[in-house]
Amino acid sequence: MKTINEIQDEIIEDFSGLEDWMDKYQLLIDLGNDQEPLEEKYKTDQNLIDGCQSRVWIQSDYTDGIITYRAESDALIVKGIISLLIRVLSGHTPDEILDADLYFIDEIGLRQHLSPTRSNGLLAMVKQMRMDALAFKAMSEHTNN
Fold first, then answer.
1. Which helix (H) or strand (E) holds 91?
2. Each residue's pLDDT tens digit, 39-54
3. Cα separation of 77 and 28, whole Å?
4. Residue 52 a catalytic site member
5. Domains assigned to the chain
6. Is the pLDDT of residue 103 over 70?
7. From the candidates 4, 27, 28, 52, which is the catalytic residue?
């Protein structure tokens, strides 16, 4: 299993070969299109992220100490962004997720190239994923005591 930082480094490398931002956006769109669609039953208000201009749903599942994220968005670029977040954070423990420094966002220039509303949406997605990790952590500590 790769660490969160190893995965981030892979993403930085994927994007580093692309000079032009149109190419980077195209890569994001392709990543979003490659992502497994979220089942309709998970497209609930509870899974809908506040603070996003477009609609984004994130479903988190916790099995054997590992969190798995799935998500969907009705905007192509946002779908690509969330697919990167899933690639980095999904399959890790709550502690690993909570301790992660998501430096790839700045390294690939994402934050600088997103509109303020998209940037807020990105932060909202990260915040939700961390809040889910915190909830699962608290739940597992409660169960183990």
1. none
2. 999 999 999 998 777 8
3. 6
4. yes
5. 4-144 (3.90.1010.10)
6. yes
7. 52
